[in-house]
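Interim report, section 4.2 (structural modelling).
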Amino acid sequence: MGSRSFASRLRDGDEIARLITMVFAATVVLITLLLVYELWTNSALARAKFGFHFFVTRVWDPNIDQYGALPFMYGTLVTSVLALLIAVPLGIGAAIFLAELAPPRISDTLQFFIDLLAAVPSVIYGLLGVFIIVPLMRTVIFPGLNKPLGFMPFFKGPSYGVGFLTAGIVLAIMVIPYIISVSREVLLSVPRDQREAALALGSTRWESTWKVVVPFAKTGILGSIFLALARALGETMAVTMVIGNTPTISASLFSPGDSIASVIANQFTEATGDLYLQSLVGLGLVLFLMTFILNGLARLLILVTTQRGSGVPT
Amino acid sequence: MNARIKWRRFVSNFMLTLTGLCALVSVSVLFLILGYLLYNGGTSINWAFFTQLPKPVGEIGGGMANAIVGSAKLLLAASLLGVPIGFLGGIYLAEFSGSAVASVVRYAADLLNGVPSIVIGIFAYSLVVLPFKHFSTLAGAFALGLMMIPITLRSTEEFLNGVPRYLREGAMALGASKWKTIASVVVPAAYRGILTAILLALARVAGETAPLLFTAFGNRYWSEGWGQPTASLPVMIFTYAVSPYDDWHRQAWAAGLVLLGLILIINILARTILSRGITVPRS
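Predicted structure of the assembly:
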């Protein structure tokens, strides 16, 4: 290749093709940089005015031009944590079944359905949330939990059906497919001899799975959880439709609340005044940074386990 | 000793059954969703849904013809933006670039893929809506197109890398230039995988709502050309579902059924027929 002159490569179109495709590849980098730049500059007013107080201020009131992110960050965190509490045991359990127990054909078929589940758009989850889970919360789950456990602040009423727990449940359903898919893949990448060694030592099927295979894959499984968390934090529509959209900080899981993504979705088009709009963009920047860090960590963890199988049990 | 082994066997069987239940519950969610949508949407859908404009607030009836066309226009324009950038960028990564440059581009693409869709909406707003001073089909398509880029790019790269070396060598031995080799041998060998990935990316953005809220916005009428705000199926589902009107709820179900049906059909076709025998990377 090196012996061919520039002119001859140009004639064959190689250089032109290289340049053209390079421009498109560079566009991807450029767009990403531009995105960060736009978020940064368009939130300048809010950053200058509030600084770090933005994160600890509870008041969000356009009437007095005062904006604090705390209630939204609280809502985002609470709903995401609730979602993980439900989704992680279910998702990992299902992944263990698919990777360790189910015959390959059944495992692949079920994985196909899981992939379809991951393709369901969030607005559909929101639709089902509004018309199925919200009434269910109001009539069944809230009375069921409030009567025996109402003395605890988490289960205090009243309940309107919408709120943190409802959003958490909908989010859980949404992120389960991600946990299953990634965890299954990580579990499948655990070398076969690990299982055989455990079984040969007389362990039961479950013991070999739980004490050998899962610890071996734990870094990757943690990665799948981070990935799910990042999805949950950034999820907009399904949460907006069932969280109640009131910026409150309440210990009660049945209280209506708000999240970073939903306040942006609800107020962005009606934001009059530069500070108002820039505060919303500031929230977008916060959300971007949170998911950026989590996604990075998740990728690292999954890579470490699947590429080199270095998740040596300790 | 014997009792202990029995206990361990019991624990093993119990826990393994439990994992089976977890899998069953997770998969049955899909069928619950489908069942509910088929039931509620199936009873609400009618001819008017596909052919009429929305009626004024308070009047019963009408349809979402403008939203169906709006979504189609959005997806078309989004593909025109996202597919060339992703596809040609992917070719560069797989065939031309050094590893340092490639990892920078790859990193940017992964970062873009992880950006929450609502933040993509903010970006499209400040880049396309603000300068033109109004919401438009183009702004919405820009947001959706951005979301198609990373998936198209990474899967193009992956499938091109999967093309066996001897195919390239064969073409080059016949005297083809590098570009000729790529265009006439490598890409055709990988096209089914790439096409599958593009279709899946399209199906994914077809259901995106958040990035359209303040880019394409919404419209109760037909949207002329590309510079006007436009209705779209996902946004209509959102506004109709949270509205207080029963008839709008009915139409939200119908729209949900149409949208999900479309997305699942694309997914099933792409994953079964088109990609038979190849593994599709997950986005």
